[in-house]
Design goal:
Elements: E1 2-6, H1 11-20, E2 24-28, H2 39-46, E3 54-59, H3 64-74, E4 78-81, H4 87-96, E5 101-108, H5 111-115, E6 126-131, E7 158-160, H6 169-175, E8 180-183, E9 188-190, E10 193-194, H7 196-206
Parallel strand pairs: 1-2, 1-8, 2-3, 3-4, 4-5, 5-6, 6-7, 7-8
Antiparallel strand pairs: 9-10
Helix pairs in contact: 1-2, 1-7
The protein binds ligand LARABZUK.
């Protein structure tokens, strides 16, 4: 299973988290986020990473030109679209960045909203389901209704996100079977400062699901 730890801001933490078992690291390229990092900070954080670790830039309602410039300058291997991007936008981004993984995040409000995920599966590599929050785009610590997701079975791989922690991960994975999980505030001391003890505990609790 893929494990993405999102909202990395410090180079030494990126190495430590990869060593503990993360398969992907996420970098927040949304200027209003307390976890925002510049291209230079991403470059520093990925410089020593093994090539097998995915480096995902998280964007929200950013232009294709700006996303492409950031990806090329910072060596990102994937882009996570966390705003209100349309399926058409995902298709256009794919034309600009054919080698880059495109992850469309859905901030799920209800079952009907979940059904719109099907509109994206032809144009993206991966979906990510996150909790809806009226004021914040992500990193909210809010959980989804996992029971509602039990029937969710898109035609592309998907990540479960939203309020996951070392304490609830086993319960979450007993109810849903995503291809990957994504955690941010549940393994943090403060926004952007990861708690390496909590990350270690996460991998311990994941056991052989890793
Ligand atoms: O984390 C942020 O600050 C953020 C800001 C703007 C857009 C997206 C953002 N995070 C996206 C993520 O992938 C988080 O990991 C995801 O929302 C889960 O966060 P959490 O509930 O804290 O585990």
């Amino acid at each position: 299973m893929r494990v993405k730890i999102c909202g990395i801001t410090q180079p030494q933490q990126s190495i430590a988290i990869a060593t503990l078992g993360a398969t992907a690291l996420g970098f927040i390229c949304v200027p209003t986020s307390p976890r925002y990092v510049t291209i230079e900070q991403i470059q520093a954080a990925v410089a020593q990473l093994p090539s097998k670790i995915d480096r995902i830039g998280v964007f929200a309602n950013t232009s294709i030109t700006e996303i492409s410039q950031t990806v090329l300058a910072s060596g990102l291997t994937g882009v996570q679209l966390h705003g209100d991007e349309s399926a058409e936008f995902c298709y256009q981004l794919r034309q600009s960045l054919p080698q880059v993984e495109i992850i469309k995040a859905m901030r799920v409000r209800n079952l009907e909203h979940l059904q719109t995920a099907a509109n994206y599966t032809k144009f993206v590599d991966t979906l990510l389901l996150d909790a809806y929050h009226p004021q914040q785009l992500g990193g909210t610590g809010k959980t989804l209704d996992w029971q509602m997701l039990q029937e969710f079975s898109p035609t592309c791989p998907w990540f479960l996100a939203g309020g996951l922690t070392p304490d609830n991960i086993v319960d979450a994975l007993s109810q849903v079977q995503p291809n990957g999980i994504d955690l941010s505030s549940g393994v943090e001391l403060s926004p952007g400062d990861k708690d390496l003890d909590k990350v270690a505990l996460l991998f311990q609790r994941l056991g052989n699901r890793k």
